[in-house]
Amino acid sequence: MSSICLINPRYESLVRRHGLDQFDRVMHWQGGRRMVSHPSRDVTQIDIEDAGETVRFYVKREWQTYAKDRVTGWLHDRGWGTKARHEWRLLGAMAAAGVGCAEPVVMVERGWIRRQGYLIVRAIPGAVELNHYLAEHRPVMSVRDRRQFAAYLGREVARLHEAGIDHPDLYSKHILLGEGPQSSLPLVSFIDMQRSSAERSVSASRRARDLAALDATLSRELASATDRAAFLGSYLSHTSVRLDQAQATKAIRRRAFELLRRRNIREMQGDVKHAAGQFVQLNAEATLYAESNWIELLRRAGLDGFDQIMATNRGQLLRRQANCEIVRIELPTTDGPVRLCLERYRGRYPLARLRQRILGRRVQLPGWSEAAQIGRMRRLGLPAPDLLAFGQRFGRWAWGESFVLTREVQFRSSKLLP
């Protein structure tokens, strides 16, 4: 069986000591924290003690390489290998061009017809995602500092493209900010380059596609229109492609709208005040918003699990139909009572259950579907309630239960017209 093993010379002794070049050992690694999980690949965070120091790595394993991915890679000059092998080459090209990226440690690929492989990269010390960085720092930034940061970020993205490297998945979560040599400006790094390509130049169309991905995944709360204009102006001033800023803005916004309409981008599902739209999985069925004060409040109220939410008798019943009931729940807080709206759905969904069995993936029940609609509305900047929790569960004989919990919309005035 053919195999390829590439090791970064800087980490060769560490790789050998801990067996990171042993294919079977790494592919069956049980420890660490699972960050991303798909049927054909996963990403696991591991910490290794070496020479009295704890070093953090990310293991990106690829269990199966699909024919369509290999053909697509060949058409885009990425070769016939695994995504791990392609990303290894991309990271090397980025490092050679002086573009910030994760440091590759080792890549191993095995097989010919059914290729498998893995790539291990070192975690970027102290780095945080762009949306998390803005959620924390933007409220205390002056207007001048915000414009300076936007211009700096535009220049760094331009450097990536000028190096001949595109990034179709240039979402805000794939831009990391760490401590840089200049105290006022963080070091920018780009991650998750599996679908990127390295060529002589990046076309205007692909540049617009990449910038649209970033524009779509940055909430208006984190980047205003003037911030985006400063970013784009700086980007255009540092590129060899001459584009009119007004036309570029229209093209980016159009592609960003199309992206939001076609794809369910996880980081844009909710409000972005403290946790930048993260949700925390509390049990196998329910997923709750990761803002700590909401989770603690729900726990004190006994609403921190799927069964508890579906069975609670507290609150005022507003409406009851055959398969749905809407309840208003009032919870006490230090700032006064907070009203929540709980919608619960129960019924038999044989077609949804059949689709789930055939497709092998989750099918949305009414509560989950409504939560997804709220997320889409917020992504598009439309008025929508704050989404606190949602979940669903299938039982026997196609019986299904689902819920969505939101904060009740408060109207400032009873007047409909000024």
What does this structure look like?
This protein has helices spanning 12-17, 23-27, 67-75, 83-96, 130-137, 143-162, 204-216, 225-237, 245-262, 292-300, 306-311, 350-359, 366-379; strands spanning 3-7, 33-37, 41-50, 53-62, 103-110, 116-122, 128-129, 175-178, 187-190, 279-281, 286-289, 316-320, 324-331, 338-348, 387-394, 399-407. The chain folds into 3 domains: 3-122, Phosphorylase Kinase, domain 1 (2-Layer Sandwich), CATH 3.30.200; 128-267, Transferase(Phosphotransferase), domain 1, CATH 1.10.510; 279-407. The protein has 418 residues and is of the alpha+beta class. The strands form 3 sheets. A 7-stranded antiparallel beta sheet has the order 10-11-15-16-14-13-12, sandwiched between helices. The chain has a 6-stranded antiparallel beta sheet with strand order 1-5-6-4-3-2. Strands 7-8-9 form a 3-stranded antiparallel beta sheet. Helices cover 35% and strands 25% of the residues. The chain is built from 13 helices and 16 strands. Helix 7 packs across helix 9 (245-262). A hairpin with a 3-residue loop joins strand 2 (33-37) and strand 3 (41-50).
How would you sum up this structure in a few lines?
The chain is 35% helix and 25% strand. With 418 residues, it is of the alpha+beta class.
Main traits of this protein?
35% helix; Transferase(Phosphotransferase), domain 1; 3 domains; Phosphorylase Kinase, domain 1; alpha+beta; 13 helices
Task: Chart the SSEs and their pairings.
Elements: E1 3-7, H1 12-17, H2 23-27, E2 33-37, E3 41-50, E4 53-62, H3 67-75, H4 83-96, E5 103-110, E6 116-122, E7 128-129, H5 130-137, H6 143-162, E8 175-178, E9 187-190, H7 204-216, H8 225-237, H9 245-262, E10 279-281, E11 286-289, H10 292-300, H11 306-311, E12 316-320, E13 324-331, E14 338-348, H12 350-359, H13 366-379, E15 387-394, E16 399-407
Antiparallel strand pairs: 1-5, 2-3, 3-4, 4-6, 5-6, 7-8, 8-9, 10-11, 11-15, 12-13, 13-14, 14-16, 15-16
Helix pairs in contact: 6-8, 7-9
